[in-house]
């Protein structure tokens, strides 16, 4: 029924062979295992040899080759796992982080310390480490984690007990190195590698570290505040120094600019003043030459005044004095002769009076000559002084002052000598002096009387004599004035004039009246009294 031909049978056989071959190939391929770089295979059911580390009594490690019932394929390798007779397990070679914690571990100060951290652990990458780890931990990560935590805690407690809390907290690097060295040796025996250890926190249940922190914080805060204040002080000091340097630089610049400006102004002023200064110097030289010239002219003027004014004045005064003495002597001799003749000849009193009148006339004549000579000398001196002043004023002010001083001195000296000459004449002829003073004062007296009459705006005369009463009243004023002078001096003006020009009888009466009131009569010189 189902008869097959030979060709069909052959085709089926070929297909079956192909399928079988494919199945075989698939089966073989599926049993060939290749590990990742971070894992290893442990093939059980196949015998192999391996190097087993053996620790000797002296502490050294020796390796011995021993047959093992499993095979280890490291990362990146491949292996054919025989079906039904062999089995393989994967072992991770990657690093894993294991958190650890140590609670209430006493320090060498018996202060409980809590520590927390993380350890970096992995299975060694060699065949022996993989075999040791898989034998001890059965490729269970929890077993590896518990082992590492227990070893770190034990070693950490042992090492913490030898250190102070301050060292544990501050020198964590030393603590970490010591723990890694001890725990790392234990891990290596179990096929593990302790790659790193981090201490994340160190605390004390009693708050010891916090207290240290507070004190240190206070110290740090104090130091920080001090440092901040010091930095602020240094900053302010630097700023003040900088401002001071800036101010000094500005002051130096201002002073330099002021010096430059002063030099510039001085140069400009000197340039502007060069001409006036030179002109002033020339003027000074001119004034100096003029002063010398004026001094020479003053000397010449002094010499001229000496020769033309002073000496002639001295000569005139001396001549007047000699003439006055001669006239006086002549008058005295004449008077004595007349008196002697009167006494001897028994002449009458009229003759004696006439002699005295002649004597007074001679005195008046001598006085007149003396006054005329003195006036002439004064006039000549004044004219020459004016001439000298004019010459001096035409020069400089200084020379003018010197010339004026010289002229005034010469004039004063000449006037003084003239007054001295008049004084000598008045001593010899006192009546002449008195008469001159009285006559010199009369114009002023009459002027004041006339001014008093002139100030009257209107005048009403109550008299039976009519307007002639006014004239008579004015004449009475002169009469009353003479009476006042007579009461004060002892004789009136009319008496003096009559004695000088009216004759011997009137002169004798005036002189005798004066002698009676003022002094005795000189027996040798009638008409001359001694005060």
From TrEMBL:
TM ranges: none
Keyword tags: Coiled coil, Membrane
Organism: Demequina mangrovi
UniProt region (Disordered), positions on chain: 512-531
InterPro entries named among the record's database cross-references: Band_7, Band_7/SPFH_dom_sf, Flotillin_C, Flotillin_fam
Classification via Gene3D superfamilies: Band 7 domain
Name of the molecule in the record: Flotillin
GO cellular component, one term: plasma membrane
Coiled coil residues, start to end: 217-297
UniProt keyword Transmembrane present: no
Domain Band stretches: 49-216
GO BP term, example: protein localization to plasma membrane
Family: Belongs to the band 7/mec-2 family. Flotillin subfamily.
Pfam families found in the cross-reference section: Band_7 (PF01145), Flot (PF15975)
Keyword Coiled coil (UniProt): yes
Lineage: Bacteria, Bacillati, Actinomycetota, Actinomycetes, Micrococcales
Compartments where located: Membrane
Molecular function, one GO term: protease binding
